[in-house]
Design brief:
With 172 residues, the chain is an all-alpha fold. It contains six helices and two strands, in the order αβαααααβ. The chain has a two-stranded antiparallel ribbon. It is globular and about 55 Å long. The relative contact order is 0.13.
C-alpha cells in the first residue's frame, strides 16, 4: 500500500496526472493512486513467472538508483555546498559506491547473455525493460516541456469525469 504514495506525491508535484493526487471523499485515501498501483501489479503477474518479474524489476530499479546517485555526484561538483547550502549532505563516497555497484548490476544481465549466446536464445526482456523506460521519457519530456492547450483541456475534462466516477477530490 505504500507504493501508491509515489504516484500520489508525483501527481501533487505536477509530474503525473492531477487525478492521481486526489483522495476518496469517504476514506480519505489516495484511491486513484492505489488503483493504478493495483492495476500495474496485476499486469506484472500475468506472465506467471516470478523469477522474471524479480529480475526485470531489480534491473529497472538499479538503473534508477544508479542514475540518482550519479546525479548526486554531478550536482556536488556543479553546485558546490559552499555556494548552494543544503539541509544535509551525503558523504560523496556513498553515491560513488552505489554507482559502481549499480553499474555492475545493470551490466551483469547483458554480460551473462553474451556469454551464453550460443547455448540458449537471447533474453530480450532486459531490452524491453530499457525500451519501456525510454518510451516513458519520450512521453514525459515533451508533455512537460510543451504547453499544448488542447491536450491540457482534454486532460482536464477527463480528470473531471474520473473525479465523478471514483468520488475523489483534491486533498486541500
Amino acid at each position: 500500500m505504500t507504493a501508491a504514495r509515489i504516484p500520489y506525491s508525483a501527481a501533487r508535484n505536477g509530474q503525473m496526472p492531477k487525478f492521481l493526487s486526489m483522495i476518496n471523499i469517504n476514506y480519505l485515501t489516495p484511491a486513484p493512486a492505489v488503483m493504478l498501483n493495483g492495476f500495474l501489479a496485476s499486469l506484472m503477474v500475468i506472465p506467471n513467472d516470478f523469477n522474471s518479474l524479480v529480475n526485470y524489476f531489480s534491473f529497472c530499479m538499479w538503473i534508477f538508483h544508479t542514475a540518482t546517485c550519479a546525479a548526486v555526484i554531478i550536482f556536488r561538483y556543479k553546485m558546490p555546498v559552499e555556494k548552494f547550502p543544503r539541509s544535509f549532505a551525503v558523504p560523496i563516497f556513498i553515491p560513488i559506491i552505489i554507482c559502481i555497484i549499480g553499474t555492475y548490476l545493470v551490466l551483469v544481465p547483458f554480460i551473462q547473455e553474451f556469454q551464453n549466446l550460443g547455448d540458449q536464445p537471447f533474453d530480450l526482456g532486459y531490452i524491453y525493460v530499457f525500451l519501456w523506460i525510454l518510451i516513458g521519457l519520450l512521453i514525459y519530456l515533451p508533455l512537460t516541456k510543451l504547453n499544448c492547450q488542447t491536450f491540457i483541456a482534454s486532460v482536464r475534462k477527463l480528470t473531471l469525469k474520473l473525479q465523478l466516477l471514483f468520488r475523489v477530490v483534491p486533498p486541500e
